[in-house]
Design goal:
This protein is an alpha/beta fold. The protein has helices at 5-15, 44-55, 75-85, 96-100, 113-117; strands at residues 60-64, 91-94, 122-125, 143-147. It has a four-stranded parallel sheet.
Amino acid sequence: ADQSDLSVNYLYNLTGKKHKPYIIVNTYKHEPFPVTWFNTKSPAPMKAEIRKLLEAGKRVLVLTDSQKEKSAYGTYNLEAEFKKDFPLLSILRIDSKTLQDPTQLAYGCLANINLVLKPYPLVIPSPSCNTGASIELFDHYDAVFLIGKGSLDSLISPMRLGVAP
């Protein structure tokens, strides 16, 4: 894990052994990708951009930091809003409720997340998807958005991706 020299030296000294630790340095540098920031208190401009992309037949991943029905920007309300705008669009909502309910499309999907996500042009995961899931669909999404409220100071979005980081 990313450790400082202080941490490594502390652990080394605790062992009491006189051997050098084996240290691996990750030097990988990914290709840069364009990022657009919406510096606004309202996600309206971001949602307008998502609508434009969906109308053009693009695949979009919309990450949010909330799931609750009382959250205007949570998975539940975002799904309802986009279903209203695009009634024929296949949307996958992934949150604690849909992951645990056998009647939901997202039920148990974390084990095979990359296979499950592929057919959906719009996927809206909550932080429930953060632990134990690694989305590795490179060159799959045309845009990735993050709507962050609460712990984040402002709304952050979209990373226009050719390759998902």
